[in-house]
Amino acid sequence: MRLVSWNVNGIRAVQRKGLFIPFVDALSPDVICLQEVKAEQHQSEHLIEGYEEHWYPAEKKGYSGTAVFTRPTPLQVTRGLPASLAKKYSFHEDAFGDPNLEGRTLTVEFPEFYLVNVYTPNAKGDLSRLRHRHEQWDPAFLAYLKKLNKVKPVIVCGDLNVAHTADDLANPKANVGKAGYTNEERLRFEELLASGFVDSFRLFTQGNGHYTWWSNFSAARERNVGWRIDYFLVSADFVSRVSAAEIHADLMGSDHCPVSLTLDL
């Protein structure tokens, strides 16, 4: 079973470029998790036959949003984090909106596992959303994963908007303290790992040079000056089912590239 995750940075833009179907043909995924779709389902042309489509757009038009396309029929689909967790961690509307109304988590339950597709809020260039990330979103998201993991194994995929270690971005020294590489964001990622989740890519590949996002400026992608901020995390007791975890940097259409996880079920 192959799962694929891709921050498309606007699904309609990828469609206009004619690059969505080639992506599907190249990877032949059983499940496709998309982030930053920036659209509602009715605004998107029918993408591919043979897949059920589950969308969770943001209330704000043309912003954020997630979607899952799946060949196997899921047992259940859940949009957003539970209201109880949003209340416990004091979610509230900030200058950008209410993070739990931005289409950021879409959970699909299969017989063997939960699959949580996430588009984590960006801390912003001026770090104006870092406090929300550190004190509200990240702790609430971890609490949600722990709750699911008590029932069955969990796979988390998506744009987590953080580079974990110095090996996960091309210029770590120059980016210390900047959005995506602050101590606060990296600490919360460490807490995910300490809570029993495994960075699947690092099961197979070590070292730097492996990135999933590149700036649109200064020919960053051509020069491979990037960041690894898109992940598949897997419950530790499900790692034995993982047979491959890959980055597909050759597939174009967004400032991110797809990442995949192959399971032996």
Describe the structure.
41% of the residues are buried. The model has no long low-confidence stretch (mean pLDDT 96). Helix content is 23%, strand content 25%. The chain has helices spanning 11-16, 20-27, 83-88, 130-149, 172-175, 183-194, 201-204, and strands at 2-7, 31-35, 52-56, 66-70, 76-79, 105-109, 114-119, 154-159, 197-199, 213-214, 226-227, 230-235, 242-247, 259-263. The chain starts with a strand and ends with a strand. It is built from seven helices and 14 strands.
List the helices and strands and how they pair.
Elements: E1 2-7, H1 11-16, H2 20-27, E2 31-35, E3 52-56, E4 66-70, E5 76-79, H3 83-88, E6 105-109, E7 114-119, H4 130-149, E8 154-159, H5 172-175, H6 183-194, E9 197-199, H7 201-204, E10 213-214, E11 226-227, E12 230-235, E13 242-247, E14 259-263
Parallel strand pairs: 1-2, 7-8
Antiparallel strand pairs: 1-14, 2-4, 3-4, 5-6, 6-7, 8-12, 9-12, 10-11, 13-14
Helix pairs in contact: 4-6
**Spatial ordering of strands, largest sheet:** 3-4-2-1-14-13
Estimated share of beta-strand residues: 15-25%
- Low-pLDDT residue spans: none
Gyration radius, to the nearest Å? 17 Å
Which of globular, elongated, flat, extended, rod-shaped describes the shape? globular
Report the structural category: alpha+beta
- Helical content stands at 10-25%
Largest sheet: 6 strands, mixed
CATH class equals Alpha Beta
Q: Tell me which CATH architecture applies here.
A: 4-Layer Sandwich
CATH third-tier fold name: Deoxyribonuclease I, Chain A
CATH superfamily: Endonuclease/exonuclease/phosphatase
The ordered H/E elements are: EHHEEEEHEEHEHHEHEEEEE
Quote the distance from N terminus to C terminus.
7 Å
Helical segment count: 7
* Structural domains: how many: 1
Quick check: average pLDDT? 96
